[in-house]
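Sequence design from tokenized structure. All designs in this work follow the same two-part layout: the structure record, then the generated sequence. An example of the structure record is given first.
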């Protein structure tokens, strides 16, 4: 059954089914949660369930009818999505107007329309404002879903018109199951990736790539060397991020995964600096981490960890990635006199 494809989020599925059964399904939803936990997939499965022509149970898609197939292929005439165009940082107002016009059309198949704003983090004031009227009075039968990583980027006028639905990070077992479905065959590899992914499938997928371990090696070795080469490290990190292509979410994931590696290394160095036992260190890493421990000492290491965590927050808040990368490296490559 189609909902089975959505891992985790049992509480969210339950609340949608409950509201639908009671005839109280809302019209405007704001899905909020970290990248890569299944918000988009959930929105698509919801659209399928609403537009399915032969639902086997209430709010459940059959996954076989033309309606289900067309939602899956994003060709259904009553299913509309809006993304930030490649290379842009914001949702342009003209595209938002065209999206609203599509939503306002009478449904061509049944009595429902579903509209999903996939990059609701990227509203600018103009596009948010042009969406307000549709949000205020959704066309009859329309269900609107906005997908965002946090509430703080949304205008109060948007927030007050949506029902907020929270998506938590997945547990490691669910991430491993998604990886299995995506074709990662080796169970040990799945388990390792799931453990490192912090509940995000997108992160796990990003980690399943030899290039990232190469970058980790360059970075940890470079940062620990007696004279870190800022420019070389910035270039390696930035190239890795840029290699994600036009997909800005994938770029953010890559930048953030690298910050995660740094935080991990700094935490281990901190334990060493405090004289704690650190088990299971990679033999190549150990001398580097000891060098970092000795060079910086516990207070500075703690401060660096905080800087990295802050930087990760800025990645999520869509600060320009090159600025974040440079500011992190500027800190961690600084050698005390
Ligand atoms: Zn169907």
């Amino acid at each position: 059954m189609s909902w089975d494809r959505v891992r985790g989020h049992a509480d969210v599925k339950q609340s949608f089914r409950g509201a639908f059964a009671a005839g109280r399904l809302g019209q405007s939803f704001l899905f909020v949660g970290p990248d890569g936990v299944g918000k988009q997939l959930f929105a698509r499965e919801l659209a399928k369930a609403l537009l399915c022509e032969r639902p086997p149970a209430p709010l459940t898609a059959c996954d076989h009818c033309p309606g289900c197939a067309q939602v899956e292929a994003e060709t259904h005439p009553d299913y509309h999505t809006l993304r930030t165009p490649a290379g842009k940082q914001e949702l342009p107002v003209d595209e938002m107007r065209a999206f609203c016009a599509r939503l306002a059309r009478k449904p061509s198949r049944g009595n429902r329309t579903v509209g999903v704003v996939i990059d609701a983090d990227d509203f600018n004031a103009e596009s948010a404002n042009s969406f307000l009227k549709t949000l205020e009075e959704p066309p009859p039968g329309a269900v609107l879903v906005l997908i965002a990583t946090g509430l703080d980027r949304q205008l109060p006028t948007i927030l007050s018109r949506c029902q907020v639905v929270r998506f938590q990070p997945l547990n490691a077992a669910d991430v491993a199951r998604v990886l299995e479905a995506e074709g990662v065959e080796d169970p040990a590899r799945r388990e390792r990736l799931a453990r490192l992914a912090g509940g995000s499938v997108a992160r796990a997928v990003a980690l399943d790539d030899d290039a990232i371990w190469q970058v980790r090696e360059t970075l940890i070795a470079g940062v620990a060397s007696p004279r870190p080469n800022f420019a070389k490290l910035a270039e390696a990190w930035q190239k890795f991020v840029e290699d994600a292509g036009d997909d800005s979410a994938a770029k953010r994931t890559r930048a953030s995964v690298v910050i995660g590696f740094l935080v991990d290394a700094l935490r281990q160095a901190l334990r060493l600096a405090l004289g704690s036992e650190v088990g299971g260190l990679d033999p190549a890493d150990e001398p580097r981490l000891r060098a970092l421990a000795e060079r910086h000492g516990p207070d500075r290491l703690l401060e660096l960890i905080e800087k990295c965590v802050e930087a990760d927050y800025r990645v999520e808040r869509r600060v320009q990635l090159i600025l974040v990368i440079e500011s992190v490296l500027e800190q961690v490559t600084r050698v005390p006199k």
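The two ends are 63 Å apart (CA to CA). We note this feature because it recurs in several other targets discussed in the main text.
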